[in-house]
């Protein structure tokens, strides 16, 4: 399912100047509205309007922005930089929840700049936290984690009671992105315990959703669902429509992955009603996508279309290039189902072009960063050489003037010159080391581009198949059984596509992969295979001769994983076996992966080779190894992958 469509609310972003958890937002708002009518100094009014903005974020985003703008004006009148920084932060909060990531980023950067100038460390941590959330929403994970890691030590240093759960929640986010779900689960549970003890249930709602998402990623839907329902229930109890909209959105994502499309329709409609009331554009677009997906899956294609078109337009206006891929994807099948082939192809091309632009943008950013680093290193070296040349000339001139005075001084000057030469040699050595590092990073980039091409080629080919299959349905007689069977085939193929997409993205987002991480990925696939082929027993073993901390490139890891997946699928489809064994071992010089089944076997020369065997051998060649197939009728089949170690 679409795991990246609805990013989780991962941080409690904003701290108001008061933290009255026991009072509802509406009670606080009514009190503040009376106070701001009084004749008060600008600094007090700025704080109060900022608090109004923060409290309205749970009820009406437009009102939150309105009062945030007044807070900024009053803060400018007060000429107090700390208050102005907080006002920018409060306004940024409302605009962020409206869905304008770029404008909110500008406001938080202004707040951060002021806080740096006045040395407000805790305020800086809050700005780092908010910027981390914005970059998380933009799917720029590395930058987001960098901001979170800047905020964490500051929060830990202050060790404030209210900061502790925020620190724990952010730790959970970092562990979740690694991914280390066990540590993320522990951090979220500790954050929930503290927030419940403090009575801060408004913030606890986000942690409930985070913990439910962890269990969802672990495949434990029975544990996950109560936390999503608890988040919705608590937001209703607190009369907090903003958290209601967020919780409905996250629960919709869960139901989508679970495949409960009728329940998804009901939840998405409720969430969309709340999101429209609060006017939070990101939640509106996300819930429109969820509702459109539900209607599409139920065959209500014409009802699904306007929701998906609206979601796509909304995501585009927010600058959310990755989120817009999902309504595009659903529109392909919607238009095909209602017989509008041209529109279906249009969104297929738009989907692929958007995905291609995203990959190219990321690649250009990495290359530009490497080029900048190289040019800086080169410029530093040239300056050092010029300085050395000037110094050498000065030394020679000085030596010619004083040579008659003292042979000792000449000797000293010669010694000093030799030291400068040694320094030049040292700088040249450091440059060579830097160039070697840049070359290594370039190779890493080439590997990531290889994975990106793999992602693009797989998605392009399989989406073409889906479109073709759906369009061909209109040539069949409208017999329910036939249509159902063909829809099931398409659905299974689409699930396989999304699984391959997840594997490829997982590899692409990592510079290197350890054997432990790859082994976990293979084990998860074997478990899924066992669930889909219940008549077959699967055994998986990796020998302790292989160091789990040993790393390989991300490109190598995806090749190994694809070969294992293809071999297992062939065994399920063709072998008629009741046992499949997967073993990974090492001889020291070579690494071996053996997939053996006890099925009926075959004579390779008597079968028509397909793309599967060809692709497996091609991937083995790209690893620098080879693929051996041993099979005899009645004796089962062994597929052995061998490639050099290290």
TrEMBL record:
Gene Ontology cellular-component terms listed: membrane
Ranges that cross the membrane: 395-415
Reactions this protein catalyses: ATP + protein L-histidine = ADP + protein N-phospho-L-histidine
The protein's Enzyme Commission number: 2.7.13.3
Residues covered by the Histidine kinase domain: 454-646
SUPFAM superfamilies on file: ATPase domain of HSP90 chaperone/DNA topoisomerase II/histidine kinase, HCP-like
Example of a GO MF term: protein dimerization activity
Keywords recorded for this protein, A-Z: ATP-binding, Kinase, Membrane, Nucleotide-binding, Phosphoprotein, TPR repeat, Transferase, Transmembrane, Transmembrane helix, Two-component regulatory system
TPR repeat boundaries on the chain: 125-158, 165-198, 205-238
The name this protein goes by in its record: histidine kinase
Pfam family, one: HATPase_c
Source organism (scientific name): Algoriphagus alkaliphilus
InterPro entries named among the record's database cross-references: HATPase_C_sf (IPR036890), HATPase_dom (IPR003594), His_kinase_dom (IPR005467), Sensor_HK_TwoCompSys (IPR050482), Sig_transdc_His_kin_sub3_dim/P (IPR011712), TPR-like_helical_dom_sf (IPR011990), TPR_rpt (IPR019734)
SMART domains tied to this protein: HATPase_c, TPR
